[in-house]
Amino acid sequence: MIIIDYKDARPIYEQIVEKFKVLILKGGMQPDEQMPSVRNLAIELSINPNTIQKAYAELERQGFIYTVKGRGNFVSGDSRLVEERKKECLHKILELAVEAMEIGLSKAELMREIEQL
Q: Could you tell me how far CA 49 lies from the centroid of its own chain?
């Protein structure tokens, strides 16, 4: 489910956060589905449980999961997360489009490349 890339310059907890966000946004994990326990995931990935705990805290801060005392962490059913992620992606695309046009790429060339996707 989660694979750590030790060649990646990002901290391990950030990689874990990103992998779970993708799983949740793509529907790989359903709302109210229980997350793997901190201990089990730490053993599975052979990393410190504190790293998992830090990743889960960040996911909770961003609204992707919620904690139930004594039961564990669960996937949030918040549909706004997908909409917010779409807005973030669109914003990044627009920034890149502006940059591309500033260096001489025409709007027509840009649109042609996008349509080929």
A: 20
47: left (phi over 0), alpha (psi -120 to 50) or beta: beta
Coil/strand/helix, residue 65: strand
Which one-letter amino acid corresponds to residue 5? D
Residues 50, 65: Cα–Cα separation, whole Å: 17
Q: Residues 62-101: pLDDT tens digits? A: 999 999 999 999 999 777 887 888 888 899 999 998 999 8
Q: Which of 64-77 are b and which e, b meaning 16 or more Cβ less than 10 Å from the residue's Cβ? A: bbeeeeeeebbbbe
Predicted TM-score (pTM) of the model is: 0.74
Write out the DSSP string of the chain.
-----TTSSS-HHHHHHHHHHHHHHTTSS-TTPBPPPHHHHHHHHTS-HHHHHHHHHHHHHTTSEEEETTTEEEE---THHHHHHHHHHHHHHHHHHHHHHHTT--HHHHHHHHHH-
